């Protein structure tokens, strides 16, 4: 599909620079004229393949999601905020509770944003346990509000400018071969922390991303999750899985934590759940969530977001998108393993449709400059990718589960050419 060239209105960039808070930038380089599935068309007449995660689970403007939202807008009962006891909210809570084992013993709290849901999970854990401390992991990203930046262990330019963060948040090294950190070292770090800084009886919760997306597409190991589950059970700590970037379905399971036998006590879902509409959810054990009698949220949700969430889940379930995530991921991996050798060493990894390739030079050092050059070249050729990882040497591929195979192959062809240029 092609788009007729439309000139960008003169002066818009300068106007944006004058009025918008920095950084003001566009991943596509020009205003978007049209979006569909994994593709964007901008007003300068260019077409882009969007593998930057912004297309979510079912792509931009999925027809089924658009139709559900239009029906909701036409419904006279539609409102900006409805009570959580509305039928659509109850039905959504039932669907989300069923994502975890023992659904009848689960509770669901609906929220208006990822940050609100995660902060509520931390608040709940602290009130339930009566303890102050929170553990998180290096390389993690849990949000951009003041309180969600505190457990975020990755490099965040605006975190350094945010001043003091709560002293009750502590970080453990995330164990992964690419980081040179073993599970033994993570265990040892916990032992040292609880010997010298805080007692295990002061820890309310451990928060972890089943897949660190911004940290460089680093999936947890089953051994790590089992260790954390045992640790939490032994010390009465709440285990929180932050799935705001992984669910529903992006990992090949509705919940990325579903890849592991160890089940969390609380799960937080966010933006992808409702196709980018303002809706998030916390799912957890009833015994924990019922311990706060005065509630866990404002008790109101956006009806348009509810409609979008139901439609997203319908598409995921009816078209078997979890299975498609696995198939697309396998195809991506096969293409990556078939690349011609260059002077760069590639470490290919990920789960489902959350994939990434880490670049190192011939000496084994992180190839950060080359990763940026590759992403810049890809963007010039119409493929939107953005470097990630603690050293910016990982190129993530975050494609919607509805991506057509021909589009994925086109994107991989663009990447292959950019890699050849950077690696020779």
List keywords for this structure.
424 residues, alpha/beta, Aspartate Aminotransferase, domain 1, Aspartate Aminotransferase, domain 2, seven-stranded mixed sheet, 18 strands, 36% helix, globular, disordered N terminus, aminotransferase
Choose one word for the global shape: globular
CATH C-level class of the largest domain: Alpha Beta
**What's the architecture of the largest domain, going by CATH?**
3-Layer(aba) Sandwich
Number of helices: 13
The count of DSSP E runs of length 2 or more, i.e. the number of strands, is 18
Mean pLDDT: 91
Radius of gyration: 22 Å
CATH topology of the largest domain: Aspartate Aminotransferase, domain 2
Largest sheet descriptor = 7 strands, mixed
Into how many domains do the coordinates divide? 2
Largest beta sheet: strand ordering:
5-13-12-11-8-6-7
> What distance separates the N and C termini?
34 Å
CATH superfamily of the largest domain, please?
Answer: Type I PLP-dependent aspartate aminotransferase-like (Major domain)
Structural class: alpha/beta
Roughly what fraction of the amino acids lie in strands? 15-25%
In which range does the helix fraction lie?
25-40%
Unreliable residue runs:
1-8
């Amino acid at each position: 599909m092609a788009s007729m060239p439309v000139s960008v209105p003169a002066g818009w960039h300068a106007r944006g620079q004058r009025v918008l808070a920095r950084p003001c930038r566009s991943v596509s380089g020009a205003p978007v004229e049209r979006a569909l599935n994994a593709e964007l068309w901008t007003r300068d007449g260019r077409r882009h393949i969007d593998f930057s995660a912004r297309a979510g689970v079912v792509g931009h403007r999925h027809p089924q999601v658009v139709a559900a939202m239009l029906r909701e807008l036409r419904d006279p009962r539609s409102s900006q905020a409805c009570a959580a006891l509305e039928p659509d909210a109850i039905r959504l809570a039932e669907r989300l509770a069923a994502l975890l084992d023992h659904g009848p013993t689960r509770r669901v709290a609906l929220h208006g944003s990822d940050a609100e849901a995660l902060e509520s999970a931390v608040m709940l854990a602290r009130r339930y346990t009566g303890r102050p401390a929170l553990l998180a992991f290096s390389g993690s990203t849990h949000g951009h509000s003041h309180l969600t930046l505190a457990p975020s262990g990755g490099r965040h330019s605006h975190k350094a400018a945010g001043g003091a963060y709560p002293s009750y948040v502590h970080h453990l090294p995330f164990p992964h071969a690419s980081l040179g950190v073993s599970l033994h070292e993570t265990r040892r770090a916990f032992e040292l922390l609880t010997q010298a800084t805080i007692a295990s009886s002061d820890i309310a919760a451990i928060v972890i991303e089943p897949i660190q997306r911004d940290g460089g597409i680093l999936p947890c190991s089953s051994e790590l999750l089992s260790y954390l589950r045992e640790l939490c059970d032994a010390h009465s700590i709440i285990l929180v899985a932050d799935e705001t970037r992984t669910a529903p379905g992006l990992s090949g399971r509705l919940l990325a934590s579903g890849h592991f036998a160890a089940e969390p006590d609380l799960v937080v879902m966010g933006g992808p759940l409702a196709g980018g509409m303002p809706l998030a959810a916390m799912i957890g054990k009833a015994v924990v969530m019922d311990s706060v009698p005065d509630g866990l949220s404002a008790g109101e949700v956006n009806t348009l977001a509810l409609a979008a969430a139901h439609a997203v889940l319908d598409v995921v379930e009816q078209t078997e998108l979890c299975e498609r995530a696995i198939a697309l991921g396998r195809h991506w991996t096969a293409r990556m393993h078939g690349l011609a050798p260059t002077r760069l060493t590639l470490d290919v990894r990920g789960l489902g449709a959350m994939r990434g390739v880490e670049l190192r030079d011939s000496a084994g050092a992180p190839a950060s400059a080359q990763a940026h050059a590759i992403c810049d070249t890809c963007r010039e050729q119409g493929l939107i990718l953005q470097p990630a990882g603690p050293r910016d040497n990982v190129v993530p591929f975050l494609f919607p589960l509805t991506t057509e195979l021909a589009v994925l192959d086109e994107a991989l062809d663009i990447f292959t050419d950019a890699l050849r240029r950077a690696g020779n």
